[in-house]
Write a structure and sequence with these properties.
The complex is a heterodimer. By secondary structure, chain A is mostly helical. Chain A contains eight helices and no strands. Chain A has a single domain, classed as MetI-like fold (Orthogonal Bundle). In chain B, the strands form two sheets. Chain B has a six-stranded mixed beta sheet, sandwiched between helices. In chain B, strands 2-1-4-5 form a four-stranded antiparallel beta sheet, covered by helices on one side. By secondary structure, chain B is α/β, with parallel strands linked by helices. Helices cover about 40% and strands about 25% of the residues of chain B. Chain B contains nine helices and ten strands.
């Protein structure tokens, strides 16, 4: 262990030279957890959101209605429990709970992905439900009128539009997960906060280490919020469009004249 | 009406929303090549009737026969039936996440399971029929109301339905755009397309319809050829409605 220099900037430099890599590795771990957690969380959210918006008709059989009701109840409990408790407590509860009950100790990555995903899923479920409800009923009617079933209507018409509408919220969740992955340090996941804490514990310098940690978190969140904003714009498509005038069938000047009666 | 094959028969159709009865004992028959216009005041049940026929609303009573098969008792799958009965809405209902071409292709691709080439060819054919083929790359939000409605008509036509239902297709348009949509519909009628049209355009109904149904308070009040309805209506209600309309 090399000796610690004096002065704020000298210490920053010292930390970067000696621990830059472990800080970066911690930041990478935070990012990976946030990414995977948000992605799986979105999938969970979409599944829960879609199930919760399946329309129930009076004409449906009793079995179908009962099943839907039971599933919806379970999903409601899931959403309430994971939205209503801190992720840090959930991490302890799940990690040690499973170790105690099933005599199985989760690996660091698995535990991290599992806890962040399931937590994000609970938030995303409500977001997706809101996104689906925000789409005009006319879109569903238009799809039904050309013969699409519920799944096709969702897949090709409603969800792409809902996804666009909830993109800001997905971005929000990613940013939150980049930061909140730090609570996983309680179950010894070596992400940016855990790495910073270890280094500061070694030298008993806190301000310098956490200045670096602050900067790294900020760089990550600002970068990804900008990236997502750019992606949203891309999803909207071009502002203008080209007239397909090279098309031989195209008539740019108003309507086609009808060549008499057909068949 | 003539002896052409009956495509759609509506018998004793009724619809209640809670305590409120909006349709009572509606009977209607649509044969190949028919152009039927349904007129009446707002709230008389015209649109509800059309939506019941396409099962966007579930009727409370009566039967709907498609080529003799009762669709309310599940004789035909909902998808298959709707694919054969096209619908054009007052508010267009074009899919905002797709461009004009994809709007017309998605039904052929996903419901009729046509391959991409065939679907595109047909979509272009029907888009050029409504004068919209130059706009295949445009998104619905980039089009005017009249253009949107013409694309919606092309989308419905592309499914090659046996009958097209129009639910007040020009009511959301300004007068200039009404003309371009009515022209398209008139051309379809001349082409022999079977159509059931709910409309407030009396001049169009008089010129194009072969049969006119006047609805009042949820029942068919009077029906007959356009000459009868518009020139010498038999019922007092019909006379009152039309005179109100002419006076504006």
């Amino acid at each position: 262990m090399s000796s610690l220099p004096a002065g704020f900037w000298n210490r920053i430099l010292f930390l970067l030279q000696n621990y830059g890599f472990s800080l970066l590795k911690g930041a990478g771990t935070s990012l990976l957890i946030a990414f995977v957690g948000t992605l799986i969380g979105c999938v969970i959210g979409f599944i829960v959101g879609i199930i919760q918006t399946i329309p129930v008709q009076k004409s449906d059989s009793f079995a179908k209605r009962a099943l839907l009701k039971a599933v919806n109840l379970i999903l409601a409990v899931y959403v309430e429990v994971f939205r209503g408790t801190p992720m840090m407590v959930q991490a302890m509860f799940i990690f040690y709970g499973i170790a105690y009950l099933l005599h199985y100790v989760m690996g660091m990555w698995f535990a991290a992905f599992f806890i962040v995903s399931i937590n994000t899923g609970a938030y995303m479920a409500e977001t997706v439900r809101g996104g689906i409800l925000s789409i005009d009923a006319g879109q569903t009617e238009g799809a039904k009128a050309i013969g699409m079933n519920h799944l096709q209507t969702m897949l090709y018409v409603i969800l792409p539009q809902a996804l666009r509408n909830i993109m800001p919220q997905i971005g929000n969740n990613l940013i939150i997960n980049i930061k909140d992955s730090c609570v996983l340090s309680v179950i010894c996941v070596v992400e940016l906060f855990f790495a910073s804490k270890s280094i500061s514990g070694t030298y008993y310098i806190f301000f310098e280490v956490f200045t670096l940690a602050m900067a790294m978190y900020l760089i990550m969140t600002v970068f990804f919020s900008r990236l997502l904003r750019w992606f949203e714009k891309k999803m909207d498509g071009a502002d203008s469009y080209d007239l397909a005038t090279t098309d031989t069938l195209a008539h740019t000047s108003g309507m086609l004249n009808y060549p008499g009666k057909r068949g | 009406m003539d002896n052409n094959e009956t495509i759609l028969a509506v018998n004793h159709l009724s619809k209640r929303f809670g305590e409120n009865t909006v349709l009572r004992d509606i009977n209607c028959r649509v044969s190949t090549g028919d152009v039927i216009c349904v007129i009446g005041a707002s709230g008389s049940g015209k649109s509800t009737m059309l939506r019941c026929i396409n099962l966007l609303e579930t009727p409370t009573g009566g039967e709907i026969l498609f080529h003799g098969t009762d669709i309310l008792s599940g004789g035909l799958s909902l998808s298959a039936y709707r694919a054969k009965v096209g619908m054009v809405f007052q508010s267009f209902n074009l899919f905002s996440n797709m461009n004009v071409l994809d709007n017309c292709m998605v039904g052929m691709r996903r419901v009729l399971k046509l391959d991409k080439g065939t679907a595109k060819e047909k979509a272009l054919f029907y888009l050029s029929k409504v004068g919209m083929s130059p706009y295949i790359n445009a998104r619905p939000r980039q089009l005017s109301g009249g253009q949107k409605q013409r694309v919606a008509i092309a989308r419905a036509l592309a499914m090659e339905p046996e009958i097209l239902l129009f639910d007040e297709p020009t009511s959301a348009l300004d007068p200039q755009m009404v003309g371009e949509v009515l022209n398209v519909m008139k051309a379809l009628a001349d082409d022999g397309m079977t159509m059931l049209i709910v409309t407030h355009e009396m001049a169009f109904a008089r010129d194009v319809a072969r049969h006119v149904i006047y609805m009042d308070k949820g029942v068919v009040c009077e029906e007959g050829p356009p000459e009868q309805i518009f020139v010498s209506p038999k019922k007092q209600e019909t006379k009152d409605f039309l005179s109100r309309f002419i006076r504006g």
